[in-house]
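Blinded run. Sample ID left blank on purpose so nobody reads anything into the name before looking at the predicted structure. Input follows.
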Amino acid sequence: MATIDTVKEVLEENLDINPESVNDDSTFDSLGIDSLDMVELICDLEEKCDV
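Blinded prediction complete.
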């Protein structure tokens, strides 16, 4: 699975962000992700990627 697909999956599962709205040029601001969401996203990505 490509990294962007993993990110889209985590965004959809945990932050209810439509994966179709996420592309290579998306930013946290453009997706409406605040600093608390960002911390949660990082933790979820680390878990998903076994980091």
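Unblinding after everyone has recorded impressions. DSSP finds three helices and no strands in the chain.
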